[in-house]
Amino acid sequence: MANITNFNPVVASAIQNQTLDLKFLPAMNGKLAYSPFTYSYKLDANLGESKTFTRNSRLPVDTTPSAPDDGTANLDNNMTANKAGVEQFTIQLLQWNRMDKVNLMQQEALIASDFNRSLGNLGYLAAQLKDRLVRKAYMDAYMGGNTAVIAGGTTSTTAAHVDDIRGFLNVLNTSGQLVAVNGSNTLLVDEINSSGAIVQTLTVTGASPDGSNTSGLFVNDNSLGGISGQLTFNTATSAPTVGNALVARNAPKVFRAGARNHYSNLTGGDIATVDDLDSIVTYLRNQGNPGFKDGYIYAIGGPDAFRHWRRDPQFQLAYQGRYDAPEVKSGRITEYGGVRFIETTEVPINTLASGSRVNRVLFTADPETCMEADWQGFNNYIAGTSSPTVYCEKMSSNCALFIPEPIDAMREQQKMAFKLVTGFSCGSDLKANDQNQIPTAAIGVMFRKAAIYEFVA
Questions:
Q1: Which of 15, 32, 73, 159 keeps 20 to 30 A from 282, CA to CA?
Q2: Cα(150)–Cα(160) distance, rounded to whole angstroms?
Q3: Cα within 13 Å of Cα(19), Cβ side
Q4: Distance CA 363, CA 175 (A)
Q5: Alpha-carbon Rg for the chain in angstroms
Q6: Helix (H, G, I), strand (E, B) or coil at 141
Q7: Are the CB atoms for 248 and 168 separated by under 8 Å?
Q8: What is the block-wise mean pLDDT of the chain (457 residues), using blocks of 10 residues?
Q9: How many Cβ atoms from other residues are within 10 Å of residue 437's Cβ?
Q10: How far apart are the first and last CA of the chain?
């Protein structure tokens, strides 16, 4: 342990008695909903840098029998190598720093109380920050490619102003590389009206953000991160209609109550139902997702979703007469239909012009759905930072707590801060959708390990 003799006695005692672990860690680890559902990737990049990873898809299946000869025609015995397709995803290594402080001019008892309370608050903030970063990575990937035409901007036979351009910016080329959508790497996008009918198919050649973001997922968005902007495309039959959905052919499946074509068309009667839940589970299983190690799919949602499901006649029938079941005794759904439920208040919500609040549930069905950067230089950084004037402790694989010696003129301000160094990305699964490999899989879907469910609370 570093020399801490220059610290206030109360602070020094807290460090020596492992109060940091007792106060900061429980607060950091006890409030997590989204962040446990990540898969760690070792990353040796510098801060701010991005690293691209490549992973193989499944091998293709060929049922053609070998020729009836002795197989000695060449050194490969007449066999052709089955080469797996590859696809890439990128993680950027970033850092987040947050600080709190206590006043050392108080009485000793107050210093200890304030110090412990501040440690707990800081730990909770670290947990909440990381959880929202993971949540945003999920939303960026699994809400991408689903947008709607909105007023403003330019809408014509070659351009449309849309609510969200995520999912329209990049596409995987034939080599599995992530490249920008352009005239050579185009993206097919269906325009869908409120009845669910395809009006026309657009060949999108580019996407650009607005100078001022007006996305309904950005303005008062609870960190949903939508990006309003312009889509450009080859000449269409007619200009897309404001209110119609634009859905990329490779877009992940977004489930909505009432089978609406876009979140903006949800109405007050579009509540969460067990029938929708079963449809989501069936879809994810059809994509070849094994579930997590326990075999379950996990659903992360808020109290409103579980309230709707508990009221659903199908759910009530399943638990009829089972008064000792946890779902009945506690009033909280824990398991149903191969799904385990995680309740959180960190729900991705946005408010419609009608005043209705759109809630979302994330269903994740594979441990490798979201990748988390594990910075290889973190241990060396902490070792180089610790000194007689700065106490530093690694609290998790990507979070460290810093307590420096007070250096203000009166030595009154005891600061404490944490540093979070990581990055998150959801890898694509486009190459796994060849129905020769997974006959039940959807065709052409880029992201298939999770699904978003939208409804009105």
A1: 32
A2: 8
A3: 18
A4: 29
A5: 26
A6: helix
A7: yes
A8: 65 76 81 88 84 76 72 68 75 92 78 85 91 94 96 96 97 83 96 96 98 87 84 97 97 96 94 96 94 94 92 84 59 80 92 92 95 90 83 88 86 89 89 70 90 97
A9: 16
A10: 51
